[in-house]
Amino acid sequence: MIVIRCPYCQQDRHEEELGYGGEAELLRPPEPDAVSDEAWADYLYFRNNTKGLYQEQWCCASGCGQWFKVARDTVSHNVVEVVRFDQKLATAGKAQ
Amino acid sequence: MNYNLANLVWQGLSGHRGWEPAWRTPQPKQHYDAVIIGGGGHGLATAYYLAKEHGMNNIAVLEKGWIGGGNTGRNTTNVRSDYMFPESASVYDLALRLYETLGKDLNYNIMLSQRGWLTLIHNQHQMEFARHKANWLNCNGLDGEIIGVEEVRKMLPLLNIGDNPRYAIQGAFLQRRGGTIRHDAVAWSYARAADKLGVDIIQNCAVEGFDFEAGRITAVRSSHGRIQTGRVGVAVAGHSGVVAQMAGFRLPITSHCLQAMVSEPVKPLLNHVVISPGTGVYINQTQKGELVMGGVLDLYPSYGQRGTFPTIEKVVTAAVEMFPSFGQMRLMRHWAGIVDISSDSSPILGQTPVDNLYINCGWGTGGFKAIPAGGYLLAHSIATGRQHDLTQPFSLQRFRDNRLVDEGAAAGIAH
């Protein structure tokens, strides 16, 4: 079972108390009309779906309600890194 | 190797020492006309239909572990075709129709049991939705009907319909042709039939990468060395993204863990397959007597092929809510498979950004019921290089063209 310490309320939350929000650095293009159809489809549908270290967004859903960023191994479910949403993950862009 | 009565008696009398392997264990050749990655039901079916329908015999199936050891051996063995959009219905019903004759076609008992697939109806909204769905299925030429609460009571005497259940029952949506199949037998029957037609099934052979020339794959690099090939088919379900990454493109897919579990075996007490939309849990009883139960997927991406305790708790409590008498039973085994969930809950079939690489993925939680169609249609793509008429709506290109087949919203399926 995944247990993550929320970087805001500093409580250990297990997976039933957390919400999942997809890839960490996936940003909605600020001006959708300005991007190509290709880039828009990439944003909407296409995913890295990494096997290994994955950077993602989680929410302290049953706790303080804040979103934060997590680097987690998608095979072992080891949580390597947790930071607040306004911070960058040190492992960003790495899959191992 | 035939498993007929005379052979069984003879082998029984001679201590069962004369059975021969049902398929060969060859070393890979240097070159194949086509290589299929993934030795599950879809991959083996692809190999069989390539050899049988398209006369391609110089082909290999590469399997990282053992055949049928992935999702083919980890599902809850359910089959049905009650999908709403005509394009989905025609693919899933092709699969069910092929399953209906597969035992005879391959001379292998796949233990198809069309015992009826019931989706319970708990409230007025679900009743309206079921009526809507029944009309769609009618238009698609598929069987599907709504039955009242009295008939549900007759079909499922142990179901908690009572005075005050957590989820009241108003009736059920029933597809009588739905049911179960022994899943291992599907992998083994396709493997034996493909092997007979000359297909090399290579187990314990992991794919590690591809060699390219002018945008086309020329060889597959594997743990058994470099294998040259003219075409590649991919049927690896949850690991589709990993293979796509080796080939240099991404897919609109995330991999999730789907769990299931069985109880100890008991005498026959549940004659149909039943799912409750209220709890998301589905149950059937195997021919051996175990109750097979499954629930919804884990909502975060995962490649870990193992279960978790929160899901056991959710599934078991829901099962006992539906069938209070099951509370006395013990759980025997619990496992998980990695399923490939696409953005619109529909499969992705056919061409990819790589010229001679064809894919069959995105079946999500419903891959087992689609095996014959998935194999048949991928074989068509590999052999002809084109999309089959049935797979036109399911191309990878649909995500670029924004023509989704949103079966998740239409049929209310979990995947």
Task: Give the topology, please.
The complex is a heterodimer of chains A (96) and B (415).
Chain A: E1 3-5, E2 12-14, E3 19-23, H1 37-44, E4 53-59, E5 67-73, E6 79-84
Chain B: H1 5-13, E1 31-37, H2 41-54, E2 59-62, E3 78-79, H3 86-106, E4 117-121, H4 124-140, E5 145-148, H5 149-155, E6 171-175, E7 179-180, H6 183-196, E8 200-202, E9 207-213, E10 216-222, E11 225-234, H7 240-247, E12 253-263, E13 273-276, E14 281-285, E15 291-294, H8 309-322, E16 331-342, E17 348-351, E18 357-361, H9 371-384, H10 398-401, H11 407-410
Parallel strand pairs in B: 1-2, 1-11, 2-8, 4-13, 11-18
Antiparallel strand pairs in B: 3-7, 4-6, 5-6, 9-10, 10-11, 12-15, 12-16, 13-14, 14-15, 17-18
Helix pairs in contact in B: 2-6, 2-9, 3-9
Helix coverage percent of residues of chain B?
Answer: 25-40%
Spans of chain A with pLDDT under 50 lasting ≥5 residues? none
Total number of helices of chain A: 1
Strand content of chain B: 15-25%
The oligomeric status of these chains comes to heterodimer
With strands numbered from the N-terminus, the spatial order across the biggest sheet of chain A is 3-4-5-6
Tell me the major beta sheet of chain B.
Answer: 8 strands, mixed
Give the overall silhouette of chain A.
globular
What is the average per-residue confidence, as pLDDT of chain A, rounded to a whole number? 94
Query: Greatest contact pair?
Result: A-B, 24 and 23 residues
Number of separate strands of chain B: 18
Helix-strand string of chain B: HEHEEHEHEHEEHEEEEHEEEEHEEEHHH
Shape of chain B: globular
Number of helices of chain B: 11
Name the beta content range of chain A: 25-35%
Distance between the termini of chain B: 38 Å
Low-confidence stretches of chain B: none
What does this entry look like structurally?
The complex is a heterodimer of chains A (96) and B (415). Chain A is mainly beta. Chain A has 1 helix and 6 strands; from the N terminus they run βββαβββ. Chain A has a 4-stranded antiparallel sheet, with no helix packed on it. In chain A, a hairpin with a 6-residue loop joins β1 (3-5) and β2 (12-14). Chain A starts with a strand and ends in a 12-residue tail after the last strand. Chain B has 415 residues and is of the alpha/beta class. Chain B has helices at residues 5-13, 41-54, 86-106, 124-140, 149-155, 183-196, 240-247, 309-322, 371-384, 398-401, 407-410; strands at residues 31-37, 59-62, 78-79, 117-121, 145-148, 171-175, 179-180, 200-202, 207-213, 216-222, 225-234, 253-263, 273-276, 281-285, 291-294, 331-342, 348-351, 357-361. In chain B, β1 (31-37), α2 and β2 (59-62) form a beta-alpha-beta unit. The longest helix of chain B is centred in the N-terminal third of the chain and has 21 residues, at 86-106. The mean pLDDT of chain B is 94. Classes of the chains: A mainly beta (96), B alpha/beta (415). Chain A binds chain B through residues 1-2, 14-16, 20, 37-38, 41-42, 44-51, 54, 56, 74-77, and chain B through 239, 241-242, 250-255, 298-304, 308-310, 343, 399-400, 402.
